[in-house]
Amino acid sequence: MRVVFLEIEADRDWALSAVGPSCLGAWLRERGHEARLVSVPRDLPLPEARALALRLDPDLLAVSLTTRQWLRGREVVGALAGSGVPLIAGGLHPTFRPDAVLAAPGFDMVCLGEGEEALLEVVQALESGRSLSGIDNVRTGPAPAKLRPPVRPLDRLPWMARDLLAEPTGVVHVSTQRGCPFPCTYCAANMLDALYDDARYGRRRTVEHVLRELEVLRDAGACYVVFLDDTFTLNPPWLRDYLPRHRDRVGLRFSLHARVETMTEALLDLLAEAGCDQITYGVESGSERVRREVMKRPVNNERIVAVFEATRAAGIRVTANYMLGLPTETPDDLDATFALHQRLDPDAFGYFVFYPYPGTPLFVTCRDRGLLPEDWEERPAVHHRSVLRLEHLSDGDLQRAWDRFTADRVERTRARYGGQTETEPSVLDYAATI
């Protein structure tokens, strides 16, 4: 069967696309099926989007959706209604909002959670003419779906299908694990554990499995690795085994995401020796109260400052990510975030207005406290504007905070590039955006 994945273009450039389809497509291909990808541009008129999605004559259409992609994805899928080609949706938004997704025109099925085995069973059912009801992880209507345990071990999964990934020349994206054990209230990764009850979602590939993939990619021309794991620096024994072998067998520079709580000077030295030259840390807020009470991130500012300094001392560039406009946040909290940002003096940084994603504890908090407007699902989830009725922040407060970070970014860019604010981004610039 021919499965065509639709990639709904996101709301910013340089966003890595099609990670889900590249995993699912590799799994299907390994079992004799065809997997293709069609990217649907943001501004493409809907009749043209329909024609684009159908031009490869698919037997099944599949779309992976985040909440930020939902409104545009709903439009595109609605334009495909009546095409005669069944369509299945997966990803975080369909997993945690299945009823809303199935109620929209054009959506025939929703896959909850991990999709490889479920999608294969859907393909086999369509191929043989069997009913789609009763497939684990798949809903076709209001009846709940039974969830099968996650794939174990992860080494069973084939390497991602690179032709389904939007990768700059020479840069490869690799995941070594699925899941994250930390209880951050703004992130859905932790909620996948709750979705699976006793079957722990968190798993990691073996060191040898990762090394073999990277050796093959290097020999095919790769020059840089972006590790996509939410927190690469979990499991010190795994890292102590992997990092020296990466240095000796792979020899490619790489970037990663980490938490300051997991970092030590000894680990930073190992990372630097192995070829790590950029780390992104989620700082989120400069207010210790907001981090502790709202985000469940009980790390203090001095620890964050110390880790940033140690990272730079190890010769590794450092990127910080911040959130603005969280529940209970005040103008003073926003000032504290910018003040911490100035102390950290990162090489690069991202800043985003908080959005309560379905499936996260903070979504429940916002809903139960009346902070979400009734039509929240009809409003775009964007990086620069809040959807919430915040108790202590006005739209003007948030705009001023956003503008302050924007002005700082412009000033740092001018200083870095000798007065020019537009220049060709480097590999490290790209890695810092993922």
Give the biggest sheet: 6 strands, mixed
Strand content: 15-25%
C-alpha-based Rg, rounded: 22 Å
Tally of contiguous helical segments: 16
Total strand count, please? 14
How many domains make up the 3D coordinates? 2
Sequence of secondary-structure elements: EHEHEHEHHEHEEEHEHEHEHEHHEHEHHH
Overview of this structure, please?
With 434 residues, the chain is an alpha/beta fold. Helix content is 40%, strand content 16%. The chain has two domains: 2-139, 3-Layer(aba) Sandwich (Rossmann fold); 167-433, tm_1862 like domain (pyruvate-formate lyase- activating enzyme), CATH 3.80.30.20. Strands 2-1-3-4-5-6 form a six-stranded mixed beta sheet, with helices on both faces. Strands 7-10-11-12-13-14 form a six-stranded parallel beta sheet, sandwiched between helices. A two-stranded antiparallel ribbon has the order 8-9. Helix 9 links the parallel strand 10 and strand 11 (253-258). The radius of gyration is 22 Å and the shape is globular. 42% of the residues are buried.
